[in-house]
Amino acid sequence: MRLPGPVVALVLQLVVSPAGALAQVESGPPESPPSVLSGKTAALAGFVLAASLLADESFRGQVQEYRGKTSDAVARVGNGFGEPRYVLPAIGAGLLVGQLTGQRSVTRVALRAGGAVALAGGITTAVKFAIGRSRPEGDGDADLFRPFSGRSSFPSGHTAVAFALATAIAEETRDPWSDAALYGAATLTALARVNDDRHWISDVFVGALVGHLSARWLSRRQGGLRLRPAGVTMSLEF
């Protein structure tokens, strides 16, 4: 099936420039967006991060000790929710459906999800490169950080993608059950990365935080969005 040209161009923009892709939406009068993270929540996140860094090796040992066929099978499902090769086509399909059926809400959700995934992916890639943490598999050392060395454990990109996707969709829903399902799937991705010995527990915690805050930041920046009836133009500023 050949996709319409505008939809193909939009999907490519989401990957290359999330700000450009979100140009299909027009904002109302500029307002100061609310904070995505309160002081108390930031303090709690810092405490959890410190605790997870201290528990990295012991937690990994416990998970690997009880790892088996069942946990590996569950992990394969969890990995899919954070895998870009599955997530990006799904977002593209959402854009296609929204464009072909004229359902603006579907287009809006797909745009926000795509922008959040692209932003979270870009942040995690940059931080991975700068931090240079060794992965746990093999004889990995949780305390080994070599900036710009090519090591790429911290933070977890799959987890960031999963939580960006879950948060972006949850921001558009009013159903607590769907929110629970979305965040449950994202949490499953985080646990899958630890089960597969690809990440430390602190890696997935920070990945989840990056993904969640990326989606919330975009949502706050796009407060009062309204789609233009006939086409796609960019008016948001980032």
Radius of gyration: 19 Å
Portion of residues within helices: 55-70%
Uncertain residue segments: 1-12, 14-29, 224-238
Look at the structure and give the mean pLDDT.
Answer: 84
Question: How far do the termini sit from each other?
Answer: 35 Å
Q: Tell me the number of strands.
A: 2
The figure for the number of domains is 1
How would the blueprint of this fold be written?
Layout: H1 5-16, H2 18-21, E1 25-26, H3 39-65, H4 69-81, H5 84-101, H6 104-131, H7 157-170, H8 176-195, H9 201-221, E2 226-227
Antiparallel strand pairs: 1-2
Describe the structure concisely for a colleague.
By secondary structure, the protein is mainly alpha-helical.
Which terms summarize this structure?
single chain, 238 residues, two-stranded antiparallel sheet, 9 helices, 66% helix
Describe the protein.
The protein is globular and about 55 Å long. The chain is built from 9 helices and 2 strands. The chain has a two-stranded antiparallel ribbon with strand order 1-2. The protein starts with a helix and ends in an 11-residue tail after the last strand. Helix 1 (5-16) packs antiparallel against helix 5 (84-101). The chain has one domain. It has 238 residues and is mainly alpha-helical.
